[in-house]
Amino acid sequence: MTILELPSPRLEEWRWADMATLKAAADAEPRDAGIRPADLFLDGDGPRLLFVDGVFEPAHSRPGPVKVARWAPETVHPLGGMAEGEGWVLSLEAEAAVTGIQIVHLGSGGESHVPARIALGEDAVATMVETYAGTGWANRFARFDLARGARLMRSVRLLQADGFVSLRDEAVIGEAASLVSIFLGAGGMGSRIDGALTLTGKGAFAEMGGALLTSGTQKQEAAVAVRHEAIEGTSRQLWRAVAANRSVASLAARVEVARGAQQTDGEQSLRGLLLERAATVNLKPELEIFADDVKCAHGATVGELDARALFYLQSRGIDEARAKALLTHAFVADALGRIGDDAVRAAFEADAARWLEAAL
Amino acid sequence: MLKIDNLRAEVDGKEILKGLSLDVNAGEVHAIMGPNGAGKSTLGYVLGGRPGYEPTGGSVTFAGEDLLEKSAHERAAAGLFLGFQYPVEIPGISNVQFLREALNAQRRGRGEGPLSGGEFLKLARAQADALGMDHEMLKRPVNVGFSGGEKKRNEMVQMGIIGPKLAILDETDSGLDIDALKAVGEGINRIMRAPDKAVLLITHYQRLLDYVQPDFVHVLAEGRIVRSGGPELAHELEREGYGAVAA
Ligand SMILES: Nc1ncnc2c1ncn2[C@@H]1O[C@H](COP(=O)(O)OP(=O)(O)O)[C@@H](O)[C@H]1O
Ligand SMILES: [Mg+2]
């Protein structure tokens, strides 16, 4: 890879992207992260795949219906387009159901590229959890095709100690189909979570949201565009960003409603919490609406912890660090609350709590 | 139990408490009355350790220790409870989670072991019952969507769970209807009327004092205690107004 291929920060969509950290992670010498892959899987009997530095590891995997294959994604996205090589495919027939799929990506340095393709037939159902740990630059592309009535619930946690994780999702969501992707950035890495979701069928549902927690000089970012092309679609983008020290968390969320996509119900809620004055949260909500009968609620606010609430907790005996952790956890609770599975949500909440414990 | 000596304190660089002295012994209930803006809430916040309410002179000892040296959570662990005039709403944290966390933090501070979830819930339900608060409200986010009266009842439930040595109750009676006033008054007597406990009851009106009989009544005006007396002083204030009594 040459640096010339990376997107330039002069482009509006990449102005907050931390390509310097990505580049440094790509060039880093491999090192043993000292992580046991088994510790990165949650309990459960679902299919499991482990990729170490982008290479499938059969020893720690039981892929079930998930296939491993090599290919190059077709996308114009500058990072997504680089994600070629060994990857995975989940293709479900109509009415099939596979729950509790876990994909773990463990990096030891340098760059790794993994493409994924998820195609769900009519009324098929899948749930999955993805975990990123270790170090290096993990670059991933995922393509989703959901046929009529298909449902996918996906939870993704970025827990790399350092390095960079770049994710590009491209989804086509058909009639009455539903795609929910919830992200937690609670590691020390830089990140770019990038998505383009298109609702092509009547009554489709698309959700992409989550919580980015940053500390030190870290920069994390989500940049998501949801496009409504059919009537009666619903979309949700609920993001929470918490920034400590001198870190930067950025959220850019866009809703496009095409001509004729009437009765669209779009909701966008971007909120940032600054734990220190030197921290930064960038928010960029965008609406582009070409239909007249639509409901698009949106809100974007950045604030600090409520001093009155902090004192109220302290006056009842809770020390300052713990009081801050409780209030910060409460701040991200509604974003993680979108995860439907109790055990997965609890695991993500524990990851967030660990982050708070370390950062406060 | 509490000894305030010539206390001075500033808010935003403006002196609000101007040499306030007060002694509260175990087993006593003291009422502090005074006009709006006299500095009553400021006194509560300074004793509670709220940032921005800066003591600039004098001293406060509580249970034999320098209170002003301690941070807010240490004051709570030492047995001080501040009932808020305006209890704070905290979305995303349930009442039970908040109170269990608070109680166990205090217990830890005193070298005691934590209460289990079951033990805590039993205690919380008993206190809620005693105050006429629905158990459902224990599960709700702290004070969110509570009416003024419900918030004040919740303060009393918290006080019952925590079991402090000294309660400083800032206008706990404001915004209460007559039923809630009675419940809160009875709650204060039940939880705090004991030989080893004491209450500092900050109030604007006589009416709470019909339920919680004070041993001493003080008038706070312009940042200091200008008169002290027995329960009859509260009636005199009610009849004649602060202007006449404080002058
Ligand atoms: N946070 C604050 N910032 C600035 N001034 C304050 C603040 N809190 C109280 N004050 C001022 O301090 C004085 C006493 O207020 P307070 O203690 O609330 O009185 P009380 O409770 O007796 O009505 C008032 O003049 C009020 O304006
Ligand atoms: Mg007041």
TrEMBL record, chain A:
SUPFAM superfamilies: Stabilizer of iron transporter SufD
Domain SUF system FeS cluster assembly SufBD core: 117-331
GO BP annotations listed: iron-sulfur cluster assembly
Domain of life: Bacteria
Pfam families reported in the protein's UniProt record: SUFBD_core (PF01458)
InterPro entries (UniProt xref): Fe-S_cluster_assembly_SufBD (IPR055346), SUF_FeS_clus_asmbl_SufBD_core (IPR000825), SUF_FeS_clus_asmbl_SufBD_sf (IPR037284)
Name of the protein: SufD family Fe-S cluster assembly protein
Organism from which the protein derives: Sphingomonas naasensis
UniProtKB/TrEMBL annotation, chain B:
Domain ABC transporter: 2-247
Gene (UniProt): sufC
Keyword ATP-binding among record annotations: yes
Family that this chain belongs to: Belongs to the ABC transporter superfamily. Ycf16 family.
UniProt keyword list: ATP-binding, Nucleotide-binding
Alphabetized GO MF terms: ATP binding; ATP hydrolysis activity
Record protein name field: Fe-S cluster assembly ATPase SufC
Oxidoreductase in keyword set: no
